[in-house]
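Lab notebook, design round three. We kept the backbone fixed and only want residue identities now. Task for the bench partner: fill in a sequence for the structure below.
Input structure tokens:
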């Protein structure tokens, strides 16, 4: 993958990981000083003898890392990293707003206990922003609106999306 040598300012990228290696990659990248973000969803799991709260990656197979062109090879050499997402020989950076919306989504999910539902990335809809409530400030795409609204957060670089149900009165149209 070509990285422009002058790209010294750190940018967010999606790192494809081996199956179930997201948390390990996150930990290893942090250990070498690279900022990471692996959004997690917490669920109760029940076994015959006990219940336990378990954390699962919101985007299985991906960890997000903020690094410069000079750190690209360090990221690529990290055990568990398969590749950094890109197209046509160039890395595909994530927009800061996408990362911030996922951070707000993760915080809102922890507060409400809601579990996001994966949705088709290609579903058309209008851009929205959440005005109030635990998801305030989150931007996404309106998927459906029947009483309450189903809103999707999409990450273009990894072609993945998740959705949650919100009160219709808490969202407004967002002009891109």
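Proposed sequence:
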């Amino acid at each position: 993958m070509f990285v422009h040598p002058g790209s010294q300012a750190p940018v967010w990228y999606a790192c494809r990981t081996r199956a179930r290696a997201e948390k390990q990659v996150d930990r290893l990248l942090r250990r070498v000083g690279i900022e990471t973000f692996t959004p997690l969803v917490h669920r109760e799991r029940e076994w015959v003898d006990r219940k336990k709260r378990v954390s699962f990656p919101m985007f299985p197979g991906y960890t997000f890392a903020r690094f410069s062109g000079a750190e690209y090879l360090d990221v690529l050499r990290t055990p568990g990293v398969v590749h950094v997402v890109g197209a046509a020989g160039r890395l595909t950076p994530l927009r800061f707003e996408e990362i911030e919306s996922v951070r707000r989504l993760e915080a809102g999910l922890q507060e409400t206990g809601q579990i996001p539902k994966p949705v088709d990335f290609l579903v058309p809809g209008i851009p929205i922003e959440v005005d109030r409530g635990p998801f305030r400030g989150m931007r996404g795409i309106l998927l459906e609106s029947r009483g309450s609204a189903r809103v999707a957060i999409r990450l273009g670089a990894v072609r993945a999306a998740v959705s949650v149900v919100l009160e219709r009165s808490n969202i407004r149209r967002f002009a891109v």
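Keep this in mind before ordering anything: Residues 96-112 form the longest helix (17 residues).
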